[in-house]
Amino acid sequence: MLRWYDANARVLPWRAPPGSPPPDPYRVWLSEVMLQQTQVATVIPYFEKFTARWPDFASLAAVEDADLMSAWAGLGYYARARNLLAAARAVAGEHGGRLPADEAALRTLPGFGAYTAAAVAAIAFGQRAVVVDGNVERVVARLFAVADPLPGAKPRIRDLADSITPDARAGDFAQAMMDLGATICTPRSPRCLLCPLADRCEARAAATPEAFPVKAKKKARPVRYGTFFWAERDGRVLLVRRPDTGLLGGMRAFPTGVWSESPPALADAPFAADWTLRNATVRHVFTHFELIAALATATIGGHIDAPDGEWWPIADLDSAGLPTVFAKAVKAIGRSE
DNA sequence: GAAGCGTGGAT
DNA sequence: TATCCAAGCTT
Length: 337
Hints:
Residues 34-183 form the HhH-GPD domain. The protein is of the alpha+beta class.
């Protein structure tokens, strides 16, 4: 694997060339958090933007929460951004401005789970650590033809990954396994003819690489309905901040009614106004449900009993840091009648 | 252990 | 279009 990696490693902004000294732990950590459940191509522009604005722990730790959440807008899984800031502040305040170098200490920081702690320990600090992400799970499951379904097979796969992890260059080994999974040993139509492990791969020998890893069936995704409320006055629109926990936690948003299983009415408007239902809807797929949102608008004249929020210039909505579902609503309002 | 948590790419 | 799923973590 290391030989293959030396010749085939992807060139990425947060990565050092194979065999060279480890890159800046700050950049490794930032990239690992952004890459959680997120593809490389999606992460790159965010990583460039973040490292340009906040090049180290000290600068990131000093950011206002709202600025960080706004910069993260569109990347998803917003708890990552909240944990990122909490970890940066812990590092700046309690760890002398540096990440701890061992896996167990890393594991105690916000946003560091089993994967991220192992990856940072191995990639940024040269420690031997067993790094298991979705790519490694797939490669190992195929290499050893693991027949037990995920997620129950995770401990077994972790042990197998441990058994093939070298003492030296464990970080490069981990990145090699992930590159292999991302480019060769793909979920569908793996390119086994290019794989350096093909000779030793049990799934390949059985001619059924795509059958691994075995996974439990997923539940169907329910549909929920809601309404987004666009309150406009003097060229501005009312934005609120969502609660810190839960869906889109801490993000700017339009006021919304309750999201439920049946189509809503204007009855759950956030305040009394002359609401008009537009002839447009927003459809958006979240991890565990699909949302179909109606759009209601009102022009506000005199005083209203509106919730706390910001009257944001409509011409400058791009800078509000709205999550994608609400950015879609802005577009749909523009198209509607 | 299971459920909650975003968004977009690939097929 | 439908489905899978991506360098997972938290509760």
